UniProtKB/TrEMBL annotation:
Full protein name: Sucrose phosphatase-like domain-containing protein
Alphabetized InterPro entries for the sequence: HAD-like_sf, HAD_sf, TPP-like
Length: 254
């Protein structure tokens, strides 16, 4: 039987921003962020990654763009990765698969006008209260992202909710997948997804050795790719864990 294959999200799963960690934790910086909100790992997260590497193949599955992923300073033991919400698949040499890029670029360009109109509306209505941008890969748009510039959690929550309501009231978003988690609101063409990219990758690398496939993530939007796996894992306090707690009417943080 082969080793495990781990498909794992990164942000808020294997590491998180400094301010999201409890005060007093021993932290190791593991990313470089252009806005200064660098990612950090605590000892438990470091231990998890070490355990994953010791028992299998670790493949990142992340919303991070190619550029943002290049600023993750971790050794996953492989150069394979799924980036930009599934728009990019890196092969074993760390090179983007050209056929998959062409496929997702065509999808992204079909949605480009809508994404640019959405960005213009956020800029016009929110001004300096928010920032928005279109994530591009190899010259093609792949998804649209909005974040609030407020620091208070309640102000962020209200702002993200207002942005989502504004966009849905002005545009037909039926061809986009909306994701909201903390200070992150994103819209991705439905045909671009982590799940589709994972399925494509697994068709090329998985054999009949019986290697368990394990999906790891924190967000509800990770569940579709995790659903391809034999087992799933999620951090305590994540969106997924909170949903399970609500459904079971149990406090899972005790």
């Amino acid at each position: 039987m082969g080793q495990c294959i781990y498909l794992t999200d990164l942000d808020d799963t294997l590491f998180r921003s400094f301010h999201k960690h409890p005060q007093g934790e021993a932290l190791t910086r593991v990313t470089t962020a252009t806005n200064g909100h660098h990612g950090h790992m605590n000892p438990v997260q470091q231990g998890l990654l070490s355990a994953l590497r010791a028992t299998g193949v670790v493949i990142p599955v992340t919303a991070r763009s190619t550029d943002a992923f290049s600023r993750v300073h971790l050794d996953f033991g492989t150069r394979r990765a799924i980036l930009a919400n599934g728009a990019v698949i890196l092969n074993g040499e760390g090179i983007a698969e050209p056929d998959w890029l062409a496929h997702t670029a065509h999808i992204g360009r079909s949605a480009e006008a809508l994404l640019r109109d959405m960005s213009a509306l956020i800029d016009a209505e929110f001004g300096t209260a928010a920032r928005s941008w279109i994530v591009e890969e190899y010259g093609a748009p792949v998804y649209f992202c909005v974040k609030m510039n407020a620091s208070a959690a309640e102000d962020v929550r209200i702002g993200i909710s207002a942005a989502a309501e504004l966009l849905s009231s002005r545009f037909d978003l039926s061809g986009l997948r909306q994701h909201a988690n903390g200070n992150n609101l994103s819209f991705t063409p439905t045909e671009i997804s982590k799940r589709a990219a994972c399925r494509h990758l697994l068709e090329n690398i998985r054999d009949d050795s019986g290697a368990p496939l394990i999906g790891i993530g924190d967000s509800l939007t990770d569940l579709p790719f995790m659903g391809l796996c034999d087992f799933i894992m999620t951090p305590s306090g994540s969106q997924i864990a909170d949903l399970v707690a609500q459904m079971s009417n149990e406090d899972l943080t005790l």
